[in-house]
C-alpha cells in the first residue's frame, strides 16, 4: 500500500534525476516503545517511499529501541556510564549522505529522544573527515515533525540549526510536518470516523514533505558529485588545536 498521494506519485514517476548511490537514514524519535504504532513513522513512511522511488538506499532507525547514555562523547561507557548503544548504531548515521530526524512535539519542543540524538551528533564534533573538515561536512539534513500542538517551525528551527552547527548542509525547505487541530484529536495517519486517514488529504503537508525529500536528494547529489564542500577556509588543521587543558568541551577537543 502506497503512502503517497496521487500528485506525489506523479512527481516521483516523472522525475528524471539520478540519485543512485545515495544513502539516507531516517531516524524516528517517537517516545513510543516498539512495536507500538508511531504517527511520526507514518509521515516518515512518505519520505522513505519518495527516496526509494528515486533509487536512494534507505535505512530506518527507531531510537526507542536503544539506550543512549547521556553525554557528548562517542562512547559514554568510557565516561562513567555502564551502557551506551550509540557506538553500535553510530556508523549507520555516519555512513549516510542524508539524515532525516522525525520527532513528535511535546510541550512545544522536540522529544527527549530527539534531543539525545542531537547530543550524540555533537559527540562527534571533535572528529574530522579525510580533508580535515568536521565529520558531517558534505552531508545533508532535514526534519519531520508531528503532533497535536503548534510548533513545527519552532522544532524544525532547533533541529536544523543543530545539524548545521555540527556540519550538515541544510537545503531550502528542509522541514515538514502535520499537527492537526489544536488539542486532543486524531494524529497523523489515524483512521477517521468519516473515512480516510488524518492528514493524508492535507496539501500543505504533502507539498512540504515532497519539497523536503527532493531538496535533500538534490543537495546530497550535488555535494557527492562535487566531492563534498571544498576544503578552503574550513579546515580545522589550519588552526591551532584550540584546546583548553582541563576543560572537556568537545568543540575544543582534539582527537588524534
* Helicity, as a percent range: 25-40%
| Highest-level CATH class | Alpha Beta
Q: Helical region count?
A: 6
Q: State the shape.
A: globular
Element order, helices and strands? HEHEHEEHEHEH
CATH architecture heading: 3-Layer(aba) Sandwich
Fill in the CATH topology. Rossmann fold
Pfam families: FMN_red
Organism: Sphingomicrobium lutaoense
Protein name: Multimeric flavodoxin WrbA
Region (Disordered): 234-256
Brief digest:
With 256 residues, the protein is α/β, with parallel strands linked by helices. The protein has helices spanning 6-14, 39-53, 86-94, 112-122, 152-165, 203-225, and strands at residues 23-28, 57-62, 98-106, 109-110, 140-146, 175-178. The protein has a single domain, classed as 3-Layer(aba) Sandwich (Rossmann fold).
Task: Describe this entry's structure for a reader.
This protein has six helices and six strands. With 256 residues, it is an alpha/beta fold. Strands 1, 2, 3, 4, 5 and 6 form a six-stranded mixed sheet that branches. Helix 5 (152-165) links the parallel strand 5 and strand 6 (175-178). Helix 2 packs across helix 6 (203-225). The relative contact order is 0.16. The model has no long low-confidence stretch (mean pLDDT 91).
What order do the helices and strands come in, and which of them pair?
Elements: H1 6-14, E1 23-28, H2 39-53, E2 57-62, H3 86-94, E3 98-106, E4 109-110, H4 112-122, E5 140-146, H5 152-165, E6 175-178, H6 203-225
Parallel strand pairs: 1-2, 1-3, 3-5, 5-6
Antiparallel strand pairs: 3-4
Helix pairs in contact: 2-6
